[in-house]
C-alpha cells in the first residue's frame, strides 16, 4: 500500500493514528484530513489507498463518505476507526466490500498490533 490517509474530524485522533503508524514502520505517504470532503477531493482518480475512517463527523459522516466512494467505483481498503460501539454500525460496515476492519476508538498499541498482519498484507 503506497498511500495511507486518515479521515477524522478530530486532529488528535489523526495524530495518534499517525504516531502508531510511524512507530510500527508504516510512515511513508501518510496524509491526514479533518474534512472528509477534502479527503474525497484528494482521492479523486486514485485507487487502492488505505483509509482509516471515522464515522461520526459533522460535515459528512463515514457512511456518506463510503457511499460516495462506492458511487464513483473507487476501490480502496477502509479501516473504520470510530467511537461507535453500536452493533447496528458494526453490521452496516459489513455491507461495504471495501471495509476490511472495524475498530473502536481509542486506537492503542494493542489494537494496532492486531492490525499489523493485515497492514503488511496490503
TrEMBL record:
It comes from the Bacteria. The modification 4-aspartylphosphate is found at residue 54. Residues 3-120 form the Response regulatory domain. Keywords: Phosphoprotein. It holds the Pfam family Response_reg. InterPro entries: CheY-like_superfamily, Sig_transdc_resp-reg_receiver, TCS_response_regulator. Gene3D superfamilies: 3.40.50.2300. This is Response regulator. It comes from Salegentibacter maritimus.
